[in-house]
Amino acid sequence: MGQDDMIIESGQRWAINVDWLKENSRSLTAMASGSLCAKCRKKLKVDQGEAKAGDILKAIKTCCAKSPDFITLGMPLQESMFRVFLANGNQPLTLDELGNQLNERRGIDAYRTSVNVLARLLRNDQHYGLRSVPG
């Protein structure tokens, strides 16, 4: 990949594509519920199957994402990326913005959160529905 490709790529915005998840038999509700803290899991009755995606996302953004163990260094990088989008209410982010937020949460992990590594992981994602947002 040439340097010009990287300039274009680094300006792209990314987010969780809910339509892609549905088309690939994945459930945002099920995937996001794994990120809830114990208090929110109980409050939203996740184990009884009563939680809705919107309620889960709101709880993550307002409560669960504020916990220091919401994203940790020991967590797989793609899971950490998914959780950054959940914590932001799935607002689209550039590679630089995503990398900065990952570095803040994961601590000293900059080589794993470089623009090149993040771009490669996002382009090859087949699980979390992380896709480029049309500009």
Pick out its properties:
135 residues, disordered N terminus, 3 strands, mainly alpha, 8 helices, 3-stranded antiparallel β-sheet, globular
Task: Describe, in short, the structure shown.
The chain is mostly helical and 135 residues long.
Describe what you observe in this structure.
The chain has one domain (3-133). Helix content is 51%, strand content 7%. It has helices at residues 3-11, 18-23, 28-33, 38-43, 53-62, 77-87, 95-106, 115-123, and strands at residues 13-16, 93-94, 130-133. A three-stranded antiparallel sheet has the order 2-1-3. It starts with a helix and ends with a strand. 28% of the residues are buried.
What order do the helices and strands come in, and which of them pair?
Layout: H1 3-11, E1 13-16, H2 18-23, H3 28-33, H4 38-43, H5 53-62, H6 77-87, E2 93-94, H7 95-106, H8 115-123, E3 130-133
Antiparallel strand pairs: 1-2, 1-3
Adjacency order of strands in the biggest sheet: 2-1-3
Helix percent band:
40-55%
Which structural class matches the secondary elements?
mainly alpha
Query: Which sheet architecture does the biggest sheet show?
Result: 3 strands, antiparallel
Arithmetic mean of pLDDT: 88
The string of secondary-structure elements, in order, is: HEHHHHHEHHE
Strand content: 5-15%
The termini sit apart by 21 Å
Quantity of strands, as a count:
3
Radius of gyration (Å): 15 Å
The protein's oligomeric status is single chain
- Total helical segments: 8
Uncertain runs: 1-8
Q: What is the count of distinct domains? A: 1
Instruction: Categorize the overall geometry.
Output: globular
